[in-house]
Amino acid sequence: MAVSNDIRIRHYESTVVEYVTKDLGYFISVSGDSTFNSVLRSTLNKQLAIEMDCLAVILDEEQILRAISELSRRRKSVVLFLERHMSHGETSFLVRQIKNAFKNVKIIVLTGETDRRQLVLLHETGADNFIAKPISMNTLIEKIAFTIKPQNKIGQLIEQAKDLVAMGNHEDALKVARQVMELKPGSAAGYLVMGDAYKGMAKRAKAVECYRLASENADMYMEPLKKLAEFYREEGDQEVYLEFLQRLDKLSPLNVERKVEMGEVHVKLGNTDEAEELFETAIAQATREAAKYIDQVTTRIAGIYNESDPAKAETYYRRALEAKGRQLDRADIGTFIHLGINLRRQGRWEEALVEYQRALKVAPDDENIHYNMALAYAEGKRTEQAAQEMQAALEANPRVHERDHVVAYNMGLVFAKSGHLSRAREMLHAALRQAPDYAAALKLLKTLEGR
To answer: Positive or negative CA dihedral for 263, 267, 271, 272?
Structure first.
């Protein structure tokens, strides 16, 4: 078994090496994860001993399309590693954009994502494979090899049949598809390409039967359902077309374009209410995605101005929150807190409290909001209310003072100024456990004990 495994690994290694040396393959990593980039670089340079320049790490997301365009001009094939979450916003939009613009790019999404709906959407928009980090060198090689091309006989035959269909050689494609079915009876992918061949031969009844068999042999396989939906759209059978769109929507509910497509069918069928509901859902979903993107960009700009121009930073923080409208959620708490800190720096502690109160409506049990409210009250010399908010922070998270010695000190200082001396000592001791030489905490504790 170990020997067989070694042979398989060597086969994967050979596939990746040939991709670089013979097929002009190139790798781009769009990731700030230094550990992953190090593993990728070591895999190519050390384990596979590839001496050619074949890897670029891009941290500026604006350079992705430019880099791919340049490599395409050099007739390079590209494997692109993309983080599931990137600062520009939704990765699915970028995946679709790249796949529509370039035919020479395979995309591997780096993810720790547990939401199956998001992964399905990414796959549907064009992601070729996924990697869950952290990853070993051997597993990385295997993932790359399977992304580049099929690694078994059946997969290779299916790719061959697909190529023949694309060239219009439908009869030969059908022969290859039958070979697939001999090797693996009931193969959904085999039925699918067989259906494509029959469709190209204008044998539509046989084509739709193959698509149905493909769907029955793989419940979660979306491609047969897409083929069937397209078939009935071409036939003009709006009701059956809608049925398959609805089945696709259940498998991939985050696809905005499909919801619009379903709404369009309802309009043709005279189902106005159903159409309106779908259109509203599509708009709300698209708005959430756009708002998330705008929020990320404006918050990033605000951070740039935070030190040099607090007033301008405030403007961008407010724009970030306005972009979300009524769709504010816990993800926006950080923006509220940054805006409050910005206002306090400008001496506007009362306005900061207004923003923190807005944040509490979104997350009433968030200890960070209560902590920052306490600091705002303290800056306004309202010591008792400051102490109440610090107590609220401790009730929301009894270990909040253990996360950082400065946090513990600030809590101690607020409690000391409001006369809650026992609580103050507790917080100061916590600060000194984390930073035994912290001078401010030592000085205040000495003062309290002297008193």
So the answer is: positive
3-state class (DSSP) for residue 148 = helix
The answer to whether 287 touches 87, Cβ cutoff 8 Å, is no
Beta strands (DSSP E) in 115-230 are: 129-132
Kindly provide the residue ranges of all beta strands, DSSP E only, lying in 167-306, ordered along the sequence: none
Which one-letter amino acid corresponds to residue 383?
T
What confidence tier does 2 reach under pLDDT thresholds 50, 70, 90? very low
Q: How far apart are CA 182 and CA 279, in angstroms?
A: 46
CATH class of this structure's domain 153-253 = mainly alpha
* Contact between 39 and 140 (Cβ < 8 Å): yes
Helix (H) or strand (E) holding 30: strand 25-30
365-397 tens-digit pLDDT:
899 999 999 999 999 999 999 999 999 999 999
Q: Which of 201, 280, 278 is nearest to 245 (CA)?
A: 278
The pLDDT tens digits of the residues spanning 244-300 come to 999 999 988 888 889 999 999 999 999 989 999 999 888 888 777 777 667 777 887
Cα–Cα distance, 83 to 131 (Å, whole number): 10
**pTM of whole model > 0.85?**
no
What is the domain partition of the chain in residue ranges? 2-148, 153-253, 401-451
Q: Does domain 2-148 have CATH number 2.40.160.10?
A: no
CA of 5: how far to CAs of 8, 9, 135, 220, in Å? 5, 6, 18, 29
